[in-house]
Amino acid sequence: MRIAATSLIALRALRRNKLRSVLTALGIIIGVSAVIAMVSIGNGAKAQVEGQIASLGQNVILIFSGNFSTGGVRSGWGGAGTLTVDDAVAIEREVRGVAAVSAEVRDRQQVLAGGLNWGTTILGESPDYLTIRDWALTSGSMFTDQDIRSAGKVCIVGKTIITQLFPNEDPIGQTIRIRNIPFKILGVLTSKGLSVMGSDQDDVVVIPYTSAMKRVSKRTNVNMINVQAESAEVASRIQTDMADLLRQRHRLEGGRDDDFTIRGQEEIANAATATTRTMTLLLGAIAGVSLLVGGIGIMNIMLVSVTERTREIGIRLAIGAHGRDILTQFLIEAVVLSLLGGILGVLVGVGTSQLISALNHWPTLVSTSAITVALLCSSAVGVFFGFYPARKAAQLDPIEALRYE
User: Fold this and answer.
1) Nearest 5°: CA angle at 227, between 225 and 229?
2) Which residue, 115, 159, 277, 390, shows the most beta carbons closer than 10 Å to its own?
3) For residues 397 and 173, what is the distance between their CA atoms, to the nearest angstrom?
4) Where are the domains of the chain?
């Protein structure tokens, strides 16, 4: 009963100074809304990157040609021609737990069709490539092992190629020319959007890797090897087994560095999301400063309130109120101000993040955990910054308080 009466007195005190209460809560409103908006933007960016990682496929392991940091010199992506088709065949044949393998030859060429031309990425792959990447066809079919053996002049294309070269017609059965060599379109890939690196995954022409090596790029090595593990549980062991096999095949004895680089999907995801995680923490910390400033504002106003109401406190103490009642009253006032500011801040923060997403087309993701933490922090700010003024009020001497002018 005493708590209920004290709470009622605290709420009446806040209501008597509506404008001051609103201005005091404004610091908390700005702080909480900034935290919610910044964390939502960071979470949205992270979710977008994770979605791009997922577009690689399930349980994918990538083997790049060349060591990315050999002898202190960092090579470019696939910078050294150290992987061969035989390496891919050996991995599929000898490493236990491998579900599918596709040697990859990557090139950049101008393609022509119907009087139009377009610069695009040419990928030489095996028929298992679509299985590894979990990439479906919207129409048509994938080339076969027979096309690999015969270096067939066939291909499948992404949505961007259709948009640029076949805007108003069915591309299946049509011909595109790569280095003036005609390739028949067998199928069209579903759209995947941007990759982890920010490139357009749909801007691609996929041909048999033998055709890429013999007809297009005239090379004997491959840029990388795509491997799919049977399950996530065996992926780590497969990476070790593949490294051992490739070192043996490449005759890398003793302490010689690898001439290849193996990256699992989890490693790629961690590397790709590291920046967004850092950005989210940084933005959240900056926004948290606003919350701290709001708490200081609450302490300042509560100290002013104690000074203004010294006689009132003295009267309450004189007629039987305990120090803990005064302490509770001022704590309730501080917590109500901060909690009210927190609730309004959440609403403003959610609205701001949605507005930013709509205006700038940035991905945002409002998480329940961020809202919960923001509300708890705003309440904690009220208790922390309100305790000193409340304690000061509770320790007032009744006689001195009654004399106060």
Assistant:
1) 165
2) 390
3) 95
4) 2-51+273-403, 83-249
